[in-house]
Specification:
The complex is a heterodimer of chains A (about 120) and B (about 110). By secondary structure, chain A is mainly beta. Chain A contains no helices and 10 strands. Chain A has a 6-stranded mixed beta sheet, with no helix packed on it. In chain A, strands 1-3-8-7 form a 4-stranded antiparallel beta sheet, with no helix packed on it. The chains are: A mainly beta (about 120), B mainly beta (about 110).
Chain lengths: ~120, ~110
Amino acid sequence: EAQLLESGGGLVQPGGSLRLSCVASGFTFPFSSFAMMWVRQAPGKGPEWVAGISGGGSNSLYTDSVKGRFTVSRDNSKNTLYLQMTSLRVEDTGIYYCAKDPVWLVRDFGNWGQGTLFTVFS
Amino acid sequence: SYELTQPPSVSVSPGQTARITCSGDVLTTKYVYWYQQKSGQAPVLVIHQDTERPSGIPEKFSGSKTGTMATLTIRGAQVEDEADYYCFSKDRTGNQRVFGGGTKVTVL
């Protein structure tokens, strides 16, 4: 069964940095076949799309509030997606999920990971 | 920034039909996706490409779209369908993705 497992959450002070990882397993096709995305969810709020990356890793997209601060990347040899976050703000706090970007798929959407939580506190 | 607008809440009695709308001015040219999120769980995709159900999603869930408004319909809603539902699509440029604000469905 396909799984996504996020890690790297924790407590960070404003202005700090953190790197999140998402390891994929059990995919029926190579991990590199799938565009991926990071989605975050602040406490008590709805999900917010943060960033996306193409299967090969050459194209990346970001929501406006994280441009210049966050970098999405992937290592397809390790079936791993990353989110490098710098200049962190209190409003970046939340659960961060990785998932396949559904807009490129007609099947095999898979499940999201259970997410990793980090808190930016002052 | 581009927004998708949903009603905050929808309430139905067990066995009735719940309808959740999502409006956005470029939905005429963009597919809509619907996610269900139950309390404490990750979102689950229930509709893709406006009207299609992913494998394993019950037939009670259906999607439609007319112009700039998409609708998720839950026929014969039961207590287990209580959740937050979010629409999802591309923005005007296609270079970003956006979630709607979410609709809380209550079955009582």
